[in-house]
Amino acid sequence: VQLQASGGGLVQPGGSLRLSCAASAFILDGETIGWFRQAPGKEREGVTCIGGSDGARYVANSVKGRFTMSRGHANNMMYLQINRLKPEDTAVYYCAAVAKHIFQAAGLCEMGRDSRYVFWGRGTLVTVSS
Questions:
Q1: pLDDT bucket at 11, cuts 50 / 70 / 90
Q2: What angle do CA 75, 81, 82 make, to 5 degrees?
Q3: Are 71 and 81 in contact (CB under 8 A)?
Q4: What is the structure's pLDDT at 29?
Q5: DSSP-assigned states of every residue in 39-88
Q6: Which member of 23, 48, 95, 126 lies 3.0 to 4.6 Å from 8 by CB, making a disulfide possible if both were Cys?
Q7: Nearest by Cα to 28 from 74, 80, 93, 59
Q8: What pLDDT score does 66 carry?
Q9: Do the beta carbons of residue 126 and residue 16 sit within 8 Å?
């Protein structure tokens, strides 16, 4: 089981990026999925998550109105559209998945970083700088 995030890069403040996450060996449809980020010197934080049972969404206050997560048409993809980027968005971004009976959206984003049941992808670095 592997997740691989991609699409990061250097972008100017106010710019946009679309991050992708591909899963192998299992499908994401029906799982609770989410995006996390870890800035230098800080803990990993849940950014936005979608519940596997009900499709409910959790979005961190710091990114509301700017970050949108979606599932791909193929069952092994998910995306994070990031708009109006700020320097404080600079971080390594990770995708994550967990069985829906373990966590729904808020649970994954708020507690998933401490759970051994969460599958993590390799991160992709987003740097926001002029």
A1: very high
A2: 150
A3: no
A4: 72
A5: -TTS--EEEEEE-TTT--EEE-GGGTTTEEEEE-SSTTEEEEEE-S--GG
A6: 126
A7: 74
A8: 97
A9: no
Residues above pLDDT 90, as percent of the chain: 82
Q: To which residue do tokens 């109006």 refer?
A: 84
pLDDT at position 93, please? 97
Q: Is the pLDDT of residue 37 over 90?
A: yes
Query: What's the token pair of residue 109?
Result: 């984003």
Q: Pairing mode, if any, of strands 57-59 and 17-24?
A: unpaired
What is the total residue count of the chain?
130
- Residue in the block written with tokens 């708009």: 83
Cα–Cα distance measured from residue 83 to residue 66, given in angstroms and rounded to the nearest whole number: 5
For residue 115, give the amino acid letter.
S
